[in-house]
Write a structure and sequence with these properties.
mainly beta, 12 strands, 4-stranded antiparallel beta sheet, 2 domains
Length: 197
């Protein structure tokens, strides 16, 4: 009987954990795994450029890296101080601020409304742009991807055409003319002066 009471006391004593022991584990767990703040982005700084025209304000936003490369992120269109439309970019970047081109003064589809243009690629002697055509019905800009590949586009409002002239290498020259037919841009003239190889 003496041993039974002692054994019961021993079992009860082992199952009960002291409160100060539990508190110590909590303190140790916290000190071993502190919550760390996320590192701040120190390799880029915000970049923005603003234009006004056509009754709207436009803000081109991006990030400029330490090597001066600028990655475009979005264009926000404001009407009377409120956001009217937001255009998000996929992958557009330029090597430095001098190559940032952003314009709202050309009517590229000759419908009487100026469209939105931003550079999408720049080379030594050439460039190409992305265009968002103004849709008067919904009063917003719609992206027109086929124009992305036109090199050195020149808008000729008198002839209602877009011309492209450029060279590849020292002696291969190309000249193209595009016109709008049924709301689609179509190449109507192509000329290539290629050197013999």
């Amino acid at each position: 009987m003496k041993y039974t009471v002692f054994f019961v006391f021993l079992i009860i004593g082992c199952n009960k954990k002291p409160e100060h022991f539990q508190a110590k584990i909590t303190v140790d767990t916290i000190s071993r795994n502190p919550i760390k703040e996320e590192p701040k982005d120190t390799t880029t700084v915000p970049f923005s450029k603003m234009l006004t025209g056509n009754g709207y304000s436009y803000v081109l936003e991006g990030r400029q890296e330490t090597n001066e490369v600028i990655n475009f992120k979005s264009i926000t269109v404001f009407f009377k101080g409120k956001i009217h439309q937001k255009i998000i970019f996929d992958t557009v970047s330029v090597l430095h601020e001098a190559e940032v081109y952003f314009d709202v003064s050309k009517d590229v589809n000759f419908d009487g409304y100026n469209d939105l243009e931003t550079v999408n690629q720049v080379g030594n002697y050439w460039s190409s742009s992305s265009f968002w055509l103004y849709d008067k019905k919904v009063k917003k800009y719609k992206y027109y991807k086929p124009m992305d590949t036109i090199v050195n586009p020149v808008i000729d409002s008198k002839r209602r055409s877009i011309t492209s002239s450029y060279h590849v290498g020292p002696a291969d020259y190309y000249y193209k003319v595009y016109e709008w037919k049924n709301n689609k841009l179509v190449m109507t003239h192509f000329q290539a002066d290629e050197s013999e190889r």
